[in-house]
Amino acid sequence: MPKKNYFKRDSRKRYQSKRFQNPFFKRKSELPWKHAVIAVGVISVIVLIVVVSLGHQKLNIRDVVITGVEHSSKTSLEFEILNYVNRDALFLFTRANIFLFRPLDLVNQLSSIFTFATIDVSTQGTVLYITLEERTSNLIWKTGESEYIVDLTGTVVRKREGEEIQKDLPLFIDKNNLPVSIGEAVLTEKEVNGTLLFHEHLQAQGISFYDTIFDRLAGKWVSVTTAAGYALLFDPTGDIDAQASRLETVLATQVDDPSALDYIDLRFGDHIYFK
After folding, report:
1. Judgement on whether residues 146 and 129 belong to the same structural domain of the protein
2. Which domain range does residue 82 map to?
3. Own/partner pairs for 74-82, CB < 8 Å, 24+ apart?
4. pLDDT tens digit string along 149-205?
5. Beta partners for residue 234, in sequence order
6. Do residues 144 and 270 both lie within one domain?
7. Residue 258 belongs to a domain with what CATH number?
8. Element (H, E) at 189
9. Most exposed among 94, 163, 189, 231, judged by the fewest C-beta atoms under 10 Å?
10. Residue 66's CB: how many other CB atoms inside 10 A?
11. First vs last C-alpha separation in the chain
C-alpha cells in the first residue's frame, strides 16, 4: 500500500509541475528579437567607431621628420614617403592613418630604392620620424661617363652628382664600362680592402699613382696606373703584403729606370713579369 501511494504522489507532482503538453496544441516559440536588436546595435556602434577613427583627419600623419641625410636626395626621399602614406588601405582609407601605418612596410619600400646602412621608422602621435644612416663614401667607381660613390663592401651607394667634390677618394675605373645600379655590388669587400691596402704600400714606397683599372670580364685583372707611366698588375684578393714586398725588390734590384717600364705583373707569386 505504501508503494502504491508513492507512485500516486509522484504522478501528482509531475502533473502539478505542468510538464505535460498536448501534442495537438504546441506552444509557438518566440524569436529572441530583443537580443538580436541589441546585438545589431552593439555591432553597429563598434563599426561606426572604427570607421570614424580610421577616417578622421586628426588621426592621420601630419608631419615627417627626417634626420641623417647628408648626401642623398631629400626630395626623392620625401616623395617616396608620401607615396607610401597615401597608399590605399582597407579600400576606404590610407596608410596615413596612425592605426593603419606599418613602419616595416615603409622600411622595405625605402630599402628597395635607396641604399642606407640603417633605416629606423617610428611614430609619435601624428608625427613620423625617420632616422637614416648613410653608407660611408670610400671610393669613386667610374664606368663610361658616369661616376658612383661606393662603400667598403663594394656596394654602389649613389651617383656622383654634377660638381660634387669628393676629396681624397681613390678612383676605380671599370675598363668594360658596364652599367651599374644603386645598391649593386661592383666589387667584393675583399677586393676593395685589398686594393686600398695595396695603395697604402705604394704610398709607403714613394710610388705616386693616379687610378686603379678593373676588368671585371677578365677575372683577376686589376691595374694601378703610376705617375711614372707604367702599370702595376696585382691580385687584390691575394697576399697584398707579399706582392708589395716583391714589387719593392724588383724596383730596387732589377729596374734602373722605372719610367722606361710598360708594366710590372705581380699576380703570379714569386714569378714577376715586367716589360
Report:
1. no
2. 57-134
3. 76/113, 76/114, 77/110, 77/114, 77/130, 80/109, 80/110, 80/113, 80/114, 81/106, 81/110, 81/128, 81/130
4. 899 999 998 888 765 556 678 999 999 999 998 889 999 999 999 999 999 999 999
5. 222
6. yes
7. 3.40.50.11690
8. helix 189-204
9. 163
10. 15
11. 136
